Here is the input.
Amino acid sequence: MWKAFEHDLARGPGVVSYIIASSFVDGDAFLGMREHMRRVCDEIWIIDLGGEGRGTRQDDNVFAIQTPVAITMAVRYGDGDHATPAVVHYARIEGTRAAKLHKLEALQSLSDLAFEDCPNAWNAPFRPAGRGAYFDWPLLTDLMPWQHSGAQAKRTWPIGPTKEVLQERWRQLLATPNRATAFKETRDRDVQKSVHSLMGIGKLTPLQELRPEAHPEAIRRYGYRSFDRQYLIADNRVGDYLRPDLWHTLSDRQLFFASLFTQVLENGPALTVSAEVPDLHFFSGRGAKDILPLYRDPEAQQPNLHPDLLKTLADAHGQPVTAEDFAAYLYGLLAQPAFTARFHTELESRELRVPLTRDAALFKKIAALGRELIYLHTFGERFAPSPEKGRDGEGSKAGDHIKCLKAVPSTSLPKAFTHDGTRQIIRVDGGEFGPVPLDVWEYEVSGLKVVQSWLGYRMQNRKGRKSSPLDDIAPAAWTSETTSEFLQLLNLIARTLEIHPQQAALLEDALKDELIEAAEFPEPSPQWRKALAFHAAQIGMEM
Here is the structure.
């Protein structure tokens, strides 16, 4: 584009055409690229060929790759007008690889494709704006404006199913003659590097200089995957991007919501939650900037909410609404497969929008279910029910129906697991758990089969990659604690499935109601945006 449109000799018309990964079409990392193209061009055509081979909605690629691609044609007709954004047209070719290639080969002119015009804001996506009531609702990322990536260790050995395993891995790291090899050094972390403390103030002694009896900063519970709590060596020396700002906001009131914002949501809930700092890939085994903390401070005094949200809800309902009320409503509405099924087509835009009811009574009903789900999904760490409601929360069915029918052998870690659909039994080597209906076994979060994934990380040959010989240090056997955690997981999913029909009915009630539209939330003032950015910067500087 520089050669055709910006070079000293490029003063007349010009055309640039290329095929490249389509992430620039709507990715947040390409805001500047899209603005620049709109400034130097007069007209742009995007032919989206799809081809996602790794996401939640996979389709054929025209090349032998897994990255979706798009053809772009950018045109300038004369000297150019940098003050007027280029007109951008978008078309999508779908089908099998053969069908896509046949369609391209048969093209005689651009008029053979059904192009739609895209928004003309400088850095808007090179995609048409969504149409329909769904796109009148506020974006979740506007209602909760502080988005963050989850923690990323860049090595797997600091994460494990038990504290004891991580303690032994740490001990072995300091005992090995070659700490650099065991550690798995990267650009941002090596054994000679001194880094800031994750839990306190000041810098930490480099790993290479630690005495063999030294301890890590901490070993903490960790949101590894949706519904899968593991442990992390929470020490800034062992993780490249452990996200100190998330740890800084951690408290007994904090909630970390997770979704997908860079890929399309698929089957299962649109939102999950963690009471612990979550992993980069927490939601479904893939992730980016898709963690939404409820609070921006450890005192839980600064909600991560649009500055007008709570007032708008209070005015609509005629009574105060707290940040936790909104969190519960949000979870009651979005943490269900009925939402992703109902808006399957709209979610292709990667825009997660929230239908906010004006009905105070309906809001409370949805929030009540959301509170119970948050209690379940945080393993009882948040939104504990009052004593008169019982430990399962208001309206829940008391008792854990899924039992351990036969103990898993405790001589070693299991080698395999299966589900017997006829008997509704999960077998873990010689152990048996039941009754486990098929919908519990198959419960998923955008492709992540929750129960099967949980078990996969606790087998002899555990799932996932390994980054170091330290990964080979594993629990000696399946323990009674493992059985208790597994039963807790199975029963919370079973209870979740019991709640889903109530959620689905309330979602339909909300959609019939008069909803608060995105236009009712004004763009926050530059001062508020500046304060938010300053707050985030201060957290990073402190840590």
Summary: The chain has 15 helices and 19 strands. Residues 390-398 have pLDDT under 50 and may be disordered. The longest helix spans residues 480-512. The longest strand covers residues 14-21.
